[in-house]
Amino acid sequence: MSLSEPIPGSTIRAVHDDFHGDLLEVSMGPHHPSTHGVFRMIVTLDGEVVVKLKPVFGYLHRNHEKLAENNAYLASIPYTDRLDYLCSLTNNWAYVHAVEKLSGIEVPERAEYLRVILGELTRLINHCCLVGFLLNDLGTSFTPLLYSLRERERMLDMIEALTGSRMMCNFMRFGGLRTDVSSEWLAQLKTYLDTTFARYLDEQDALLTGNEILLARTQGVGVLKSDLAINAGITGPMLRASGINYDIRKVDKYSIYDRFDFRVPLGDHSDTYDRYMMRMLEMHESVKIIQQAIKDIPEGPFIDPKAKNRGLRPKAGEAYARIEGPKGEIGFHLISDGTGNPYRYRVRPPSLINLTVLEDMCLGQTLADTVIILGSVDIVLGEVDR
Amino acid sequence: MSASSESILEAFPLTIRDWLASVVPLDWLQWLILSLIGIVAILTVFGLTFAFTTVTERKLLGRFQNRLGPNRVRIFGIRVFGFFQPFADAVKALTKEDIVPAAADKVLHFLAPCAMVAFSLLGFAVLPFGKHLSLLSNIDAALLYFFAAGAASELAIFMAGWSSNNKFSLISSMRALAQLISYELPLLLVAVPAVLMAGSLSLTGIVVNQGGDLGILNWNVFTPWGFAGFIIFFIAALAECNRCPFDLPEGESEIIAGYLTEYSGFKYALFFMGEYFGMMSLSGLGVTLFLGGWQAPCAALAFIPSYLWFYAKLIVMILCFIWMRATLLRLRMDQLMRLSWKFLVPLALVNLGTVTFWKYTADWEGGMLVARWLIAIALVILPFISLGKVLSSGLGPRKYRYA
Amino acid sequence: MLGTGILKGLYITAKNLVGSYYSSERLTTIQYPEQRAQLPENYRNFPFLVYDGEDAIDGLRCTACKMCEKECPPQCIYIIPERDEKGKLQKKPKVFDIDISVCMGCGICAEVCPFESIKMDHHFEVAQRNRFAGLLLHREQLAKSNKYYHSIRPKEATAVDESLAEEKRKAEEKAKAAAAAKEAAAKAAAAKAADAAKAKTDDLEEKKN
Fold it and tell me: Residue A88's closest CA among A144, A198, A168?
């Protein structure tokens, strides 16, 4: 790129015609404190301003889709845990949802309620993490991150007591869940959300939302125009921060989401601050959903007794099912040829697709901004690389 | 104040020094010994303070973040809440492999940490630690010397960044240069009011000027200009020491560890040490200029020797630094520059006017005294609010709509 | 604005600093080797084999049906069934290996086992110096007593014991019924044979006559 050319999409005029310096190409990653795993950005800098950014990924590729095509349907559930390892339950859910659609399995009412509770709990966990790590990228000395992780630990403790594992839950089954959820567990969750977690949200708000440095660092940084967001297939909080009202829980009304009263926050400025606030506001809404679900949950079977999990052989056909994961639309496309393993298994990973606009958001911003823009995209490399 | 306690405790360090020096008969040797003892004392006291500041910082940060912090190190089975950590750290730093990148400029790479420590120690020479304690107490332009010596540490950081031959280090050292040079200015400008009031560039003179019957109320920080000056000084000092929220040269989340990226082992520890020495000497200057130096807060407490008061104030300053680090996030480079040039420097300049007003209205009495205070406070607050409003226009918490 | 947000933040961190000294709500750290968190009953990491009675190998519930081997997602289970001298399959594993460097602790083996034999363990300190042989667990290392199973998962183990006892009772009843039926059949056969013999003798006698 010639030095006197204006940078596309730039808000800062970085290159002066009378000053000819060299561009500096910096390789950030794959081992870098802020790339959230093994992600690499080849950043071309003019001073501190980014003029080119090339994302490189695939360092964590584990053949997820091919593995699943050679495995029984049941055996893929624990592998979906490892896609976006922060929110294994929503991954489980999207996958079993697809298989249920493929083989026409019905899900009992109680299981649907429990899935909603667990899905929203996963959203809380994910957003806690995101807020903490984003603020770490912004240069806090771990304080908000550790407050977030403290709460996440408590939620993980609860998930561990239920599913046996903190992160690799492997809890959803075709037609329901692996085990039932006790009423004590639900009561414990409710108490926790009403007291400790509510206090955490208030503290986090007071600590950061009005912090002048946070405002200066994030407002107007990494703007993602709404038309670009739509064209690039961005979903989730990132799309809603760009002002597009698109939440699959509302659009598809899958599971039993039409029974709950919750709102979808929308951003007007499409910048990093909006993306941060979307997560903060969504946490409040998720808490509301969980509370309603705990109140209304009916008795009944937690899994369809007729549903076959082991040795499932759906008849030939295909199905695509999607849910609103914490990071965006997580979908599974399955093609069955009537045998015990899928003919084609395809994941629609929200992290990867949300990551595609990274360069558009980063051009013209400074080096320090790229890490927070990347942080606000909310990627998990397990899902990006699969 | 009882004269006897003053003479014993206050002069205690001097008594020991003179006794040690008196062992040597030769006059010129005595002079050398006297200086050396001073240097050794400063190195010991502040070296130990450095060691325990690191562990205190880690433990306090831990508590700020709701965790325990380091508490494992034990010597002979004694744990003392992990306060032996710095000794373990020192052993580790000394025994670690010293890695020098193949492409590095080896000489500069070696010199940079040494220069860092050396330059950061220079400031201690002129600080008045107590009524009678100062290494070079008779320097008249002590303040000038302090800033001249302090500015040199930028060179060390740039040496480190350049010699490492690493892109992150280079970016970091450019940041450090820009940052340190732009924050020297507000730092100097807010020191001027104290000089104006004391009528002296000597740090001892500035401290003496803050003494008097009113005790704590005589300190510069309890005047409108002094308060404003202290806040600006504190912010600029944070930036000078590369402390959070101005830790851009180290900017861990952006540029790995900045100019420290290619350093390991004891060289890394030296940088660390230099930074903490810098922080301590700047805190010491802040204490001297605004917090009454070694003065006791009131006459009843004057039986505690002055050097202990100085030390206590220094520790409080350092704890505030740690508190900042536990709370704040990092600024961006352009915002950092804007903060200095468009906010701190103008405010410091206005502060010069305020102090002039304050100096020439020293004889106002009664109702005029209230007017003096009100005018001075207005002179401090109005520019702050108007400048702040202009600079932060367009930023602010937002209202969100729901679908 | 104008620094108030920062002051608010400073207040929050100060509150946390003070709170961490008296509130266990805030300070949640557990100092691991000395203090240990109570593991929930559902906790799982690696599988083990339950045996009844005293002898670890003889008492194994495992019948080497290979169901877990087939269903294991990362294929980390390896089973060879026992054979007697004549080469006839015995309902016992001769080799039962789990490579825990491959195992991902999903628990599907425990879920599919029809004999309540393979269960998920609570023991998580499995670090080894030898990363290949040390992490390949054999039958002997995997076998753990039913008592141990009860100690880590009291609720589940009791339920399993009850269902096993129920099954055993049913099986016994069935066996009894079968034995009775067999006996009856044998009796009937004997009677038939006797009848036949009688008829034969009768026949003979008739012939004689």
Answer: A168
Collect all residues with Cβ–Cβ distance below 8 Å to A308 and sequence separation of at least 6.
Answer: A174
User: What confidence score (pLDDT) does residue A4 get?
Assistant: 43
Residue C203 CB partners (closer than 8 Å, separation 6+):
none
Question: How far apart, in whole angstroms, are the C-alpha atoms of residue A143 and residue B61?
Answer: 8
The residue of chain B with its CA nearest to that of A148 is: B65
A52: β partners: A44
List chain A domain ranges: 64-385
Are A170 and C4 a contacting pair at CB < 8 A?
Answer: no
CA separation for the pair B123, B97 (Å, rounded): 31
Q: What are the φ/ψ torsions at residue A345 (nearest 5 degrees)?
A: -135, 120
With bands split at pLDDT 50, 70 and 90, how would you rate the model's confidence at A94? Answer: very high
Minimal-distance CA residue of chain B relative to A34: B253
Q: Nearest residue on chain C to B394, judged by CA atoms? A: C1
Chain C nearest C-alpha distance from A85 (Å): 13
pLDDT for B313 beyond 80:
yes
Domain assignment of residue C53, yes or no:
yes
Domain with residues A64-385, CATH architecture: Orthogonal Bundle (1.10)
Residue A324 token pair: 């609103």
Using the structure block, give the residue that is written with the tokens 């940088």. B271
Name the closest residue on chain B to residue C21, using Cα atoms.
B63
pLDDT tens figures, B385-403: 888 888 887 787 888 888 7
The phi, psi pair for B316, rounded to 5°, reads: -60, -45
Would you say residue C207 has pLDDT above 70? no
B385 touches chain A (CB under 8 A): no
Q: Which residues of A fall within a CB distance of 8 Å from B333?
A: 48, 366, 368
> Residue B398 class from Cβ within 10 Å (0-12 exposed, 13-18 middle, 19+ buried)?
middle
- A353 part of contact set with chain B, CB < 8 Å: no
- Tens digit of pLDDT for each residue in A132-181? 888 888 888 888 888 899 889 899 999 999 888 888 888 888 888 888 88
**What is the domain range of residue C119?**
47-166
CA distances from B93 to A87, B118, B263, B268 (A): 40, 19, 11, 8
What is the complex's ipTM, to 2 decimals?
0.83
Residue C76: inside a domain? yes
> Which strand (E) or helix (H) includes residue A333?
strand A328-336
Please check whether residue A153 touches C, CB under 8 A: yes
E strands, A112-219, are 172-173, 176-177
**Residues A348 and A331: beta-carbon distance below 8 Å:** yes
Give yes or no for C1 touching A (CB within 8 A). Answer: yes
pLDDT at position A121: 92
- Judge: A164–C42 Cβ closer than 8 Å, yes or no: yes
- Do A154 and C28 count as a contact with CB atoms less than 8 A apart? yes
Evaluate whether B290 touches B195 at the Cβ level (below 8 Å).
no
Model-wide pTM > 0.90: no
Least confident of A94-98, A283-287, B99-103, B392-396: B392-396
- Label residue B297 by pLDDT band (50, 70, 90): confident
* Helices and strands per DSSP (H, E), number in chain A: 16, 9
Number of domains comprising chain C:
1
| Strand, helix or coil for residue A335 | strand
Task: Give me chain B's average pLDDT, please.
Answer: 84
Does B4 have pLDDT greater than 80? no
The enclosing domain of C106 has a CATH number of 3.30.70.3270
Q: Are A224 and A270 in contact (CB under 8 A)?
A: yes
The full length of chain B comes to 403
CA separation for the pair C161, B179 (Å, rounded): 72
What's the count of helices (H) and strands (E) in chain C, helices before strands? Answer: 6, 6
A 200-239 residues with CB < 8 A to B:
207, 209-217, 219-220
Query: Rounded mean pLDDT of B112-131?
Result: 86
